[in-house]
Amino acid sequence: MTAAMQLDLSAIAAPASGLFETDPSAANDLVVSWGHYLGASERPFGAQAWRLDIAGEPVSVAISASTVSSTVAGYERRQVVELARLCTRPGFKWATRVMLRLWREVGGPAWPYWTPQAAVAYSDNARHPGHIYRTDGWTRVTGRAGAPSGPGSTWSKQRPSGHPGAGRKTLWLWAYQPHGHEAVGS
Predict the structure, then answer these.
(1) How far is CA 42 from CA 68, 101, 102, 112, in A?
(2) Nearest to 157 by CA among 71, 42, 49, 36
(3) Mind giving me the DSSP string for 39-64?
């Protein structure tokens, strides 16, 4: 029996599935309980969170945030929104791709602090090659993003040796088009 079949679908009132804005602290609780390798998103600035529910149960979350850098992929901070966390409940791996697309199309553009011209996300080179972004049409900007932890790091809070967020990452970009035009990935 698949994990999706383990949900009690007979108890569904409308809707059977949905994307809902949720409190970032509630999303972080799910990120931690589902075992995301980076843990909670603890950036001290703007954040917004989204939850994908099936039969009234959360199966995936996405947390949007302001970028750490003042510029990224040629955009100023106030032109871009970052997908800071994408985490799916164990046993529901299929929902990761669904949540990425929903966040890209709904969550990213709904960023409450400014209208983003682009969305960015990072994938850890040591963990995975970023196929989820590539197959969703995102553009690979570089495979050498992210300063190493320690001296010279761009983080104001230095990461200890062996921190899961240390190391090189691939930077992915989704450029939004002006209202009324479809976004273009590559």
Answers:
(1) 12, 24, 23, 18
(2) 42
(3) -S---SS-EEEEEEEETTEEEEEEEE
Question: What's the pLDDT tens digit per position in 39-76?
Answer: 789 888 889 999 999 988 999 999 999 998 888 999 99
Calpha distance 53→59 (Å, rounded): 6
pTM over 0.85: no
8 in helix, strand or coil?
coil
Torsion of CA 88, 128, 36, 78, to 10 degrees: -90
CATH for the 15-175 domain, from 3.40.50.2000, 3.40.630.30, 3.40.640.10, 3.50.50.60: 3.40.630.30
Token pair belonging to 87: 């985490």
- 117-136: pLDDT as tens digits: 999 998 877 777 788 889 99
So where are the chain's domains? 15-175
